[in-house]
Amino acid sequence: MPPEPAADTQLAELGRGLDVLTVEEPAQRRPVWRRVVSVVVPPLIAIGLVLLGWQIVVWAKLKKDYEVPPPSQVWHTLADLWNRDVLQRAVWQSMSRGLLGFAIAVAIGTPLGLLVARVKPIRAAIGPLLSGLQSLPSVAWVPLAIILYGLSPATIYTVVLLGAVPSIANGMVAGIDQIPPLYLRVGRVLGARGLVAARHIVLPAAMPGYVAGLKQGWAFSWRSLMAAELITQSPRLGTGVGQLLDSGRVQQDAPLVFAMILVILILGIAVDQVIFAPLERTVLRRRGLSGA
Amino acid sequence: MTVTEIEQEAVVRPETAVAVSGLVKRFGTGPVVLDHVSLEVTEGEFVCLLGASGCGKSTLLSVLAGLDQPTGGSVTVNGGRAALMFQEPALLPWLTASRNIELALKLGGGRFGGRSVAAREVRRTEAARLLSLVRLDSAAGKRPHELSGGMRQRVALARALAQQPRVLLMDEPFAALDAITRDLLHDELVRVWRETGVTVVFVTHNVREAVRLGQRVLLMSSRPGRIVQEYAVALEGARRIESPEVAELSVVITDRLREEIRRHAA
Q: Which residues of A touch B151 (CB under 8 A)?
């Protein structure tokens, strides 16, 4: 018995009205310049305060000038390194190694994390080891790597991988462990099994934890790389920012040491802000998980 | 509307969509959850399973959906295709409404209009048709968190239909919704059921909801779960949850349900 057309139209209207009432209107977005201001101004103020504090320490002569140089002198050192093309080459050397090492770590850590999360005996065997490795400072691997590979790029990549792979694998494991069981049930109801379920349900559901692992993995890659570059000096390894920092120590060149610490910090922040922060925001926003 | 009480007995019907006979279910060595449950659902029928907490309604649906294996007895779902809807809409939050349905189409396989679902275009067209069936044409590109509870549950209904089920199993799908939305979804569900001819097994603990929706209401006892009584709801014209006939039968069923619950006080 089909319902009368009039009743059906009324029902449709009722539904539309209810949909309008129950869906929140998206908040008005603030104008672009205000959003930019609110993102850019607070860190600028913080940096300004740090520079001011630094300058005050110099003025107060708490330390000798060759121990803590004024910001202006560090700036001149940076400008000089830039003009001699030294800075650019060191940054390229370190960044290319850091990113290549990170990429290899992703290629190893991702399937490793999947195996640990999904295969019980593997988890029992190496799960605790994998989390334990995260607490081992990667600089501890440098002597061993040098014994094994000498002063070669292999040494540096070994240290980077041992630092980053556990973070990435653990992120994958955490991401999978935190999947609400309901999604897995839905997958089964829809007929997804085995690899199909991994591709369509498990991997996308684990994305938030995995991206957090990638972010941490990058931080560990960069730290490990700097640890390795600081300790290993060789013409075969070229000059990265870590080696420049160590040459500052050898030459008792405080402005160079300050300058390279700043460069290392800024590069780490830049990669995080340019690559990982937007990736994380996108993943969370799509799921309605971020307030932004 | 006429009301008939039928003592439970096996009736063999010609076009049976679901046949359950002597079903026993226990988890490991735990207590018996379902104790010799037998029921038959005819093709195109709308049956409500009603019971208090712990009567094993959800377990029964899980077994019908193939998510759990029976400990004893036999379960047949004709054509083998049963879709299950949960109390939560359970939409995948990283996919839009349309993509949620397209995924169900892709995983289900099959053909639409002579073309395989392997083609994205075929899936998108079919998803749009299903969204239109639940009157959510404009929500195709929205993500679940941008939809209201009622809209999400309608997308979940469309996704369940995308599996081309012979039987649609619904596990208290409207329990978490506000009364106005639930009332509307009752109307919409009955409309979709009429338009598609799908067989519905609807689980609820809400007596009025069961009487409002079902052609038959099966009352279950708790611990262990058994079917203790069956009520036929002969429908004449459109029913509403406020209808006096619905209220009248609800009183009868509620009294019987309370009697069952009181047995556990002893």
A: 19, 22-23
Instruction: Split chain B (266 residues) into runs of 10 and give each run's mean pLDDT.
Output: 44 71 82 84 89 80 86 81 86 91 85 74 87 86 87 90 88 87 87 88 90 88 80 75 81 83 78
Residue A24 has phi, psi (to 5 degrees) of -70, 140
The whole-model pTM stands at 0.79
- State the Cα–Cα distance between residues A208 and A175, nearest whole angstrom: 6
- Count Cβ atoms within 10 A of the Cβ of residue A217 and give its class: 0-12 exposed, 13-18 middle, 19 or more buried: buried
- pLDDT at site B14: 58
For position B7, what pLDDT does the model report?
Answer: 41
d(CA B44, CA B13): 12
Strand-pairing partners, residue B115, are: B112
CATH number for the domain including A113? 1.10.3720.10
**DSSP alpha helices (H): ranges in A119-240?**
120-134, 142-149, 153-177, 181-189, 194-197, 203-231
Q: Judge contact between B17 and B167, C-beta under 8 A.
A: yes
Q: Measured between alpha carbons, how far is A221 from A218 in angstroms, rounded to an integer?
A: 5
Place of tokens 């506000």: B178
Residues 6+ apart with CB under 8 A from A256: A77, A244, A245, A247, A248
Number of domains in chain A: 1
Tell me whether residue A54 is in a domain: no
A269: which 2 tokens?
Answer: 């922040």
Q: Note every long-range contact of B110-119, with CB atoms under 8 Å and residues 24 or more positions apart, other chains counting.
A: B110/B164
Task: Quote the pLDDT of residue A99.
Answer: 92
**Yes or no, beta carbons of A22 and B94 under 8 Å apart:** no
Which residue in B164, B114, B88, B109 sits closest to A196, CA to CA?
B109
In a domain, A229, yes or no: yes
Kindly give the pairing relationship between strand B32-42 and strand B16-26: antiparallel
Cβ(B83)–Cβ(B160) under 8 Å? Answer: yes
**In this predicted model, what pLDDT tens digit does every residue of A223-236 receive, in sequence order?**
999 999 988 888 88
The whole-angstrom separation of Cα B17 and Cα B78 is: 5
Chain B residues in contact with A287 (beta carbon < 8 A)? 93-94, 143, 145
Domains and CATH numbers, chain B: 3-81+165-265 (3.40.50.300), 92-164 (no CATH)
Can you give the residue range of the structural domain that contains A216? 69-286
Task: Name the closest residue on chain B to residue A185, using Cα atoms.
Answer: B67
Task: List the single residue in A with minimal CA-CA distance to B135.
Answer: A12
ipTM of the complex: 0.80
- Length of chain A in terms of residues written: 292
Interchain proximity B238–A3, CB inside 8 Å: yes
Cα distance between residue B181 and residue A62, in whole Å: 71
- Taken as a whole, chain B contains a residue count of 266
* Under 8 Å between Cβ of A164 and A97: no
CB-CB neighbours of A276 under 10 Å: 18
| Predicted confidence (pLDDT) per residue in B232-266, tens digit | 887 666 778 878 788 878 888 888 888 888 887 77
| 8 Å CB contact of A189 and B84 | yes
Domain-located, residue A126: yes
Q: What residue of B is the nearest CA neighbor of A191?
A: B107
